[in-house]
Fold this protein.
Amino acid sequence: MSKPEINLTINGHERSAAVEPRVSLLDFLREDMALSGTHTGCEHGVCGACSILLDGVPIRACLMLAVQADGCHVTTVEGLCNDDGGPGVLQDAFVEAHGMQCGYCTPGMLISAQALLAENDDPTLEQIKDAIGGNLCRCTGYVQIIESIQLAAARLREARS
Amino acid sequence: MTSDPGRNLHYVAKKRRVREDKRFVTGNGKYVQDIVLPDTRHAAVLPSPYPRARILSIDTAAAEALDGVHMVLTGAQLAADCNPIRLGLKLPGIKWYPLAVDMTRYAGEWVAIVVADDAYIAEDALDLIEVDYEPLDAVVDPEVAFAETERFVHPDHGSNVLYHGNFVWGGVDEDFAAADERLDLRVRWGRSATVPIETFGVLAQWNEGTEILDIWASIQMPNFVELMASTLGYPLNSIRLHQDVDVGGSYGVKRGIKQSVLAAYLSRKLRRPVRLIEDRLWNMAGGDAHGPDRIFDTQVAFNKDGVIRSLKIRALDDAGAYPGRAPFQLAKPISALVGPYRINSVQYEAISVATNKTGQVPVRGFGQAPTNYMIEMVVDAVARHLGLDRLEIRRRNLIEAHEFPYKIPPGSEYDSGDYQTVLQKCLDLARYKDLLQRRDRARAEGRLAGIGIVTNLEPGGGNNIFEYLMDPTAEITTFMEGCEVRVDSQGNITGIMGTTTSGQGHETMFATILGEELEFDPDDIRIVHGDSLSSLPTRSPIASRMAIMLGSAAAGAAGRIKDRAMAIAAFNLDLPVAQLEYSAGTVSDRNDPSRKLTWAEICFIAYRAYHKLPEGMEPGFQAQFVFQVPGGGKLPDENNRVGIYPCFSFQAHIPYVEIDPGTGRVTVVDYAIAHDCGTVINPDIVRGMVIGGLAHGIGAALYEKFAYDDEGQFLSATFADYLMPSVHEIPDVKDVEHCTPSPLTSHGQKGSGEGGYLGAPAAIASAVNDALSPLGVTVHELPMRMHKLEALINEANTK
């Protein structure tokens, strides 16, 4: 099968690769780009474990082909880290409030929360619920995830003021 | 063995970060799908479209000819080379192989497997396999399966009955005769499970040079390596399970034995690593990860004052096609068969049947959630019958704080508890009087509103002796957990545990207890997961047991490290041990603290100065401890009485729900839970598991069902069909802890991984029935889905 070349920016780095047209963006990121933080959940767009930011917008990497991301800016959970690889503000808030258990849905949750907080660092409870409404978590019952996002928002506001 | 219950705790029970979290938020978790070995081959499986069919032929030639395909394997080929997977009960005529042999027994059962260069090619090849089936009528309804005399899921077994037993504990007939009243109730627990977001996955690599099979898997299972060895015919010590793999959720179901056998077999055949990652459709239908599916018929005898005297319980469970350990999920609840109530006697008829459905595996609580649901519905039915308040009937029947330890009729001894106080805490938390007013206002406005009240137990610690009740040849009385603690020559502490973790925070719990006992900051203690060849015995994180078992083992190993430090100091200071005091690694003379040995000096002596070691002491600085379950080690008496689990956590749940009378949609508006698992080791971990379990219980109560049609076709293969709660379905949860320490564990801790799930389904059902009570109808079947409630409401309104 022919492999068209695609060029895209992943977590701030310009990358180019030859990829089969049928390969999903999720598999491309995990297998070809060695970014295993983005997880495979349902592979039919319901659970949100594979969420990434595409040009700043949260999308499901399982529902998109890698070739469709040609020319786009992709952010994965690895891209939310500080330059030294340590947790960024949002990630650290998830640790502080223990907004996870097994950690499998966590990258997707972080991506959805990042998209919210980039627009609004003072979200209401309902806005937080709407932001993560498409991300399923089987461990936490969501309460500590909501608290993590609230903590991150408070820290972002503090840093801004 | 609670050590100094009054002492000051430095790390246990304190708000502390969970060490596992940092790798998860930064994308550094190591799940099975993240492990890459060079030259790995990828597998894909072909599911059966029929619930029951004869396999007449399988033509794999076209698939094998596809470029990039290395092997296509069928059940007949595999069965010639391996043993059937060992079942929990000895069931003649039932042979469970990883791929269907001659006959398919449920829709979605795996019929063939393809191995190719990548997963895409492997899936392409599936389309090229030609299977000729002769469809047969399926056995679908469990009651029909039980009565069936000709059509059997396993024809060679000669029956669909996997287990049928009857137990009587105490004077049931006498108590029924003496009681003022009795009533019958049928309740039904629907087929659901925990459905982790990560499917099951496995990577296997046979090494012909070392003759070791390495396995990385998304596994949570005792006996995994033993089952692999017996199925493949290998010695146990040729299989190395890597237990440092992060597991993306399990809650009981990650029992991928057939998947792992397939990957291992293919790896040895192909001399390459083989990876099998279930896709969601294979997982839902053919991953053998469904939960209990149970009908209870219960008779209860009680007095006019609401005192419950006795129960006669009949439980019929649909185990699906391949039973595995499913029948035992009827036996474990015997550990708390009368709930938190003072019930004098109980009769239990347990029946497990096979049907043409996906196999059942252990689910969070191992059968306790359905049993607790039944008990609470029975208590509510008695209250309704007597016109007694649901709160009052519980207050009259709960075991009182002064009665512990309390032995129930089947023989388990509840270790400790203060049920009335926890219930009161829940009432306070829920602002119960205000909540009643809120409900009544909503009703006055024409809405259907209800409050749930349940009190329930979470047995913790495990103990396989319930197997003996079903099979007296299963004399298994050992139920252990081991760990090792090493102090290196620099004085750093490392704890080695022997099991995978699937979100429970074991590393944090283990480090916290080591830090507490050795008086070091837990953040400076390293925790690693040993592999199955290098670590001590484990029974894996089932049965709400790790805080109890690994926690107590950790305290035991830490005690041995301290003993060694004291012995080295005593020898070098020339003082008796009794005159020495241990403090954060330094050992000093009680009478003259300036006479001491520091931790660095002790470590130096242990590793470098043999001449300063007491005579006979081996060099190095390490300790092992294998903890046996408290109260275990005994066989049942002649009346089948036996203590099954050691520790009993307790909760009270009070949810508030409203039901849309037009659509039947239930909204859980508020939820209060009071929880007592003894000493909480890490508050954030316990709170997360309690609320997470509760959310999972809301799913089981309202949404989640593995549905089949009347012909046995599977209807819930996707997340659009199997509905799980999103954040919008989970209410504002208020939670409060109470601490009644267990006398049986290192720090008074009990289990907490299952509790929320063991009460929430009953609590939501109690609330829904309260909401429906003005209509004079009740629901006793889970899940209580919208269309069913809508029909019930419409029917009641037209009467």
About this structure: Chain B touches chain A through 57 residues (CB under 8 Å). The first helix of chain B runs from residue 21 to 25. Residues 47 and 110 of chain B are 4 Å apart (CA to CA).
